[in-house]
């Protein structure tokens, strides 16, 4: 025991000798005041600390002098000091333009100055987030050039870049600390419903355009990378509360309260162990989707409107069920408004904990867990209520100075979500009465309702006046469940709880597993900078047979990718050349190679010209591959070969158009007195065997040139032009499969197959496949920032986007859904006085037509709009608190960003932010 004690004392003394403590103070060079929250790191190591409220820092390290300390703080120039002894260090940081000091990671997966990035990139740092007039950092993204934002609801906004926009964007990758934030079942990220609160965000980087060469298939249209605050660097307690109102001047509801509370606490011990905790809770009333425009495609546009008996209102559900009745015309059922079916009381809960342990000064281990739960309303093929939707993520990472290896899992729990359109139709089938007053079964409800309508309109009901559409509807609607009644709410709850074809519920407990690694060999090779890495991913789906055929056979998809990037600076570091390449393989598709080449020419520090060639690809999502949903008249079938095995849908079917031509010609012959067999033979040649290929990845190629520079140390310019081409777009194609073989042995149409069509011995399929058509797009973005005296700053950016369909069939191309022009103008001053600051942002975009599955891919106009976000803030140093008064959409101009989605008005708020270090 004595020997052990002696050995322990020796070991502790050795550690004390090895681990030295370096101290110092950091001040503002201009005001001479101490700077709190300044970062201090040893160059080339993971070791670092921050200054406290007195500007004092203490850094323990086993690294022996000489070494270099790096001092950074947002709004100040980066400074380095060579340490040769253990004397106290005095540092004065000069105020500087953070735009010149900004470092980005996502463009090349390594740190580099933003001015010298080889591709277009945007960054929002924590200071910009603090000064943003928007209610959250995610809302503030609308003011970033090249970015499009679509609001489906208060808690769900979707972003995209460079065209082919949608409300559920599976072409755009969102990473938070390297973790893909997508829902495995949906196949895309649900905005920031599951993500970070503003208090924990260090920075956000946006890459517009294809980033597949470094980030794989999901980054087809671009990448948003969010980095959270490291607990070693950002210690202390931060608390933020926001209270406000929305729905101001909204006749449908009146003003509604909005609250958003967030807390962050981080603590580091001896620069070896640190942890952080985050909690946030947002609650409010969602925006109402209440566009009741009649969009019935079978009624002439001049006859549509509230008085149209066949009215199909955009945000009323159940009225899609319609018939054309002989002698009466087109009649639709009476539907229910979305507000009676959806859940507009939305919330978002986010809990996060992370443990960081420094195994050595060059090696750090991280474990993080995220739990998120919330409600959002999402516009897809219908309006979906993502109700109490949960996302649980676990991440482990080992990070060195020149490498990392990371593994994470994402599990979703969707047990209460539902389809509002299906819900309206299902409730409509629970109360219909026959002509004797008896309630019929749901399978007979629609036909019975139309029988009642017909009888009343034609005068066969003595108590109802004939030839009166209003009276006929009232008679057919007798017994209808009124929204809010106990019968209505009972049926609503029943169908929400029922998943699959029998109900409106959406069930998914799907999971995603991912591991990736990266190693920087630059220090070893010296001659060239070389970065290598790879990833492996597994999608594990669980829908209990409601979406996939997975009750017995599990649906899982595996994919992997490897990449390498080499770069070299030549001509006295004025020209930097970079070549990247990535190979990805999904188990169901051939491998895809995506190269990227770029050059950055910097004749001086402040002037940088760039050019790049980029490629991208997108694997079909798991639903694209494996959906197998029998909806009665048609089976929706994913395009993976294994998914259709035994169904003969791809191999033995006719095109739907040719079946229509055949039946029309056959009917015409019969009316002329032609015998049945002869009529079949006369018209069977009109049948065309389908030639639908199995699904494969989409492809894109893009060329880009740009310039980023600073003139007279006051005027920042960033301009770029790109041109992209796209092929193999994912589409759906309807085919008809007969029971008999489509072709005879000699290649002619089989008469038995033609007769199967006439005898109803067929099955219709909606197949996922690709179009061979080729299209192109191009665009220009310009960003200008001018630094005025006394801390004032003016920013302007504009983006022009153009789509060229070339010779493509419009039915084979996804919607571009992007305005030609959009513009942002900002004015800010974070320091009018030592305590007062403000910012104002104006956004405008041009009108355009939106095509989406919600309106069956028919166009719906999104009017041009402009909105203003504004805030004024006041800092109270004695309380370490900042008070902000702000507004999203200050003028309360109700705007729509996607056809069928709600109109969004103003949100007015007051926030209080306490920061222990009062950064």
UniProtKB/TrEMBL annotation:
<dbReference type="InterPro" id="IPR008969">
    <property type="entry name" value="CarboxyPept-like_regulatory"/>
</dbReference>
<dbReference type="InterPro" id="IPR036942">
    <property type="entry name" value="Beta-barrel_TonB_sf"/>
</dbReference>
<keyword id="KW-0472">Membrane</keyword>
<feature type="signal peptide">
    <location>
        <begin position="1"/>
        <end position="19"/>
    </location>
</feature>
<dbReference type="Pfam" id="PF07715">
    <property type="entry name" value="Plug"/>
</dbReference>
<keyword id="KW-1134">Transmembrane beta strand</keyword>
<comment type="similarity">
    <text>Belongs to the TonB-dependent receptor family.</text>
</comment>
<keyword id="KW-0675">Receptor</keyword>
<dbReference type="Pfam" id="PF13715">
    <property type="entry name" value="CarbopepD_reg_2"/>
</dbReference>
<feature type="domain" description="TonB-dependent receptor-like beta-barrel">
    <location>
        <begin position="415"/>
        <end position="890"/>
    </location>
</feature>
<dbReference type="Pfam" id="PF00593">
    <property type="entry name" value="TonB_dep_Rec_b-barrel"/>
</dbReference>
<dbReference type="InterPro" id="IPR000531">
    <property type="entry name" value="Beta-barrel_TonB"/>
</dbReference>
<keyword id="KW-0813">Transport</keyword>
<feature type="domain" description="TonB-dependent receptor plug">
    <location>
        <begin position="115"/>
        <end position="222"/>
    </location>
</feature>
<keyword id="KW-0798">TonB box</keyword>
<keyword id="KW-0732">Signal</keyword>
<protein>
    <submittedName>
        <fullName>TonB-dependent receptor</fullName>
    </submittedName>
</protein>
<keyword id="KW-0998">Cell outer membrane</keyword>
<keyword id="KW-0812">Transmembrane</keyword>
<dbReference type="InterPro" id="IPR037066">
    <property type="entry name" value="Plug_dom_sf"/>
</dbReference>
<dbReference type="InterPro" id="IPR039426">
    <property type="entry name" value="TonB-dep_rcpt-like"/>
</dbReference>
<dbReference type="InterPro" id="IPR012910">
    <property type="entry name" value="Plug_dom"/>
</dbReference>
């Amino acid at each position: 025991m004595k020997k052990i004690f002696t050995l322990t004392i020796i070991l502790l003394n050795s550690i004390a000798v090895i681990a030295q403590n370096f101290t110092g103070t950091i001040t503002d060079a201009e005001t001479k005041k101490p700077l709190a929250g300044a970062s201090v790191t040893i160059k080339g190591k993971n070791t670092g600390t921050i200054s406290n409220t007195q500007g004092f820092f203490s850094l323990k390290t086993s690294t022996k002098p000489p070494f270099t300390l790096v001092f950074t703080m947002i709004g100040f120039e980066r400074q380095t000091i060579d340490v040769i002894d253990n004397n106290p260090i005095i540092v004065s940081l000069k105020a500087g333009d953070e735009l010149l000091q900004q470092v980005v990671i996502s463009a090349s997966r390594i740190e580099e100055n933003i001015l010298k990035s080889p591709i277009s990139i945007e960054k929002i740092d924590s200071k910009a987030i603090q000064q943003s007039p928007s209610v959250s950092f995610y809302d503030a993204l609308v003011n970033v050039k090249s970015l499009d934002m679509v609001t489906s609801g208060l808690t769900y906004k979707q972003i995209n870049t460079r065209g082919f926009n949608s409300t559920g964007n599976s072409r755009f990758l969102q990473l938070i600390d390297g973790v893909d934030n997508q829902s495995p079942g949906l196949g895309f990220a649900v905005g920031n419903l599951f993500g970070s609160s503003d208090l924990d965000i260090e920075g956000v980087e946006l890459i517009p355009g294809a980033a597949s060469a470094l980030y794989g298939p999901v980054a087809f249209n671009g990448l948003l990378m969010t980095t959270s605050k490291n607990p070693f660097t950002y210690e202390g307690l931060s608390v933020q509360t926001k209270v406000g109102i929305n729905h101001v001047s909204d006749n449908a509801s009146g003003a509604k309260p909005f609250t958003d509370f967030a807390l962050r606490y981080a603590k580091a011990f001896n620069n070896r162990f640190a942890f952080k905790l985050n909690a946030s809770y947002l609650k409010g009333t969602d925006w109402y989707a209440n566009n009741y425009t009649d969009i019935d495609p079978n009624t002439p546009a001049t006859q549509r409107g509230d008085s149209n008996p066949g009215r199909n209102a955009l945000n009323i559900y159940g009225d899609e069920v319609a018939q054309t009745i002989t002698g009466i015309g087109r009649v639709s059922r009476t539907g229910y408004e979305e507000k009676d079916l959806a859940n507009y009381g939305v919330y978002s809960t986010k809990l996060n904990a992370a443990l960081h342990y420094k195994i050595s000064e060059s090696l750090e281990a991280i474990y993080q867990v995220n739990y998120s739960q919330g409600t959002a309303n999402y516009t897809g093929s219908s309006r979906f209520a993502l109700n109490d939707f949960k996302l649980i993520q676990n991440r482990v990472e080992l990070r060195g100075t020149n490498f990392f290896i990371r593994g994470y899992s994402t599990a979703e729990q969707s047990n209460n979500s539902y389809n509002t359109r299906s819900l309206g139709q299902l409730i409509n089938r629970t109360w219909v009465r026959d002509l004797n007053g008896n309630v019929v079964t749901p399978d007979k409800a629609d036909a019975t309702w139309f029988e009642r309508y017909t009888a009343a309109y034609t005068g066969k009901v003595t108590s109802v006046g004939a030839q009166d559409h209003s009276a006929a509807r009232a008679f057919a609607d007798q017994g209808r469940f009124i929204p809010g009644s106990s019968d209505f709410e009972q049926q609503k709850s029943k169908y929400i709880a029922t998943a699959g074809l029998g109900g409106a519920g959406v069930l998914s407990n799907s999971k995603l597993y991912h591991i990736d690694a990266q190693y920087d060999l630059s220090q070893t090779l010296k001659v060239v900078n070389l970065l290598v890495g790879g990833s492996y991913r597994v999608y594990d789906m669980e829908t209990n047979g409601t979406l996939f055929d997975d009750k017995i056979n599990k649906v899982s998809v595996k994919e992997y990718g490897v990449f390498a990037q080499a770069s070299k600076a030549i001509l006295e570091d004025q020209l930097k050349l970079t070549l990247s390449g990535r190979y990805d393989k999904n188990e169901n598709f051939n491998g895809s190679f995506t190269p990227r080449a770029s050059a950055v020419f910097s004749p001086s520090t402040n002037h940088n010209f760039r050019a790049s060639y980029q490629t991208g690809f997108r694997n079909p999502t798991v639903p694209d591959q494996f959906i197998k949903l029998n909806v009665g008249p048609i089976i929706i079938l994913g395009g993976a070969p294994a998914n259709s095995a035994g169904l003969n849908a791809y191999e033995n079917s006719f095109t739907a158009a040719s079946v229509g031509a055949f039946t029309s010609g056959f009917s015409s012959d019969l009316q002329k007195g032609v015998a049945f067999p002869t009529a079949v033979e006369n018209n069977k040649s009109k049948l065309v065997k389908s030639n639908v290929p199995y699904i494969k990845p989409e492809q894109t190629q893009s060329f880009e040139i740009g310039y980023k520079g600073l003139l007279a140390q006051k005027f920042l310019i960033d301009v770029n032009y790109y041109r992209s081409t796209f092929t193999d777009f994912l589409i759906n194609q309807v085919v008809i499969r007969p029971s008999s073989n489509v072709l005879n042995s000699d290649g002619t149409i089989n008469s038995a197959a033609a007769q199967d069509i006439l005898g109803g011995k067929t099955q219709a399929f909606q197949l996922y496949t690709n179009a061979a058509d080729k299209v192109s797009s191009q665009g220009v973005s310009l960003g200008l920032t001018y630094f005025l005296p006394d801390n004032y700053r003016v920013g302007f950016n504009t983006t022009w986007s153009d789509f060229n369909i070339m010779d493509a069939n419009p039915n084979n191309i996804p919607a571009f859904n992007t305005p030609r022009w959009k513009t942002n103008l900002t004015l800010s001053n974070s320091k009018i006085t030592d305590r007062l600051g403000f910012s104002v942002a104006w956004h405008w975009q041009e009108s355009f037509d939106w095509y989406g599955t919600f309106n069956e891919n028919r166009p719906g106009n999104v009017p041009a709009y402009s909105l203003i976000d504004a805030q004024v803030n006041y800092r109270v140093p004695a309380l370490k608190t900042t008070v902000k008064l702000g507004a999203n959409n200050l003028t309360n101009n109700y705007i729509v960003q996607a056809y069928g989605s709600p109109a969004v008005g103003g949100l007015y708020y007051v926030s209080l932010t306490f920061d222990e270090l009062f950064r």
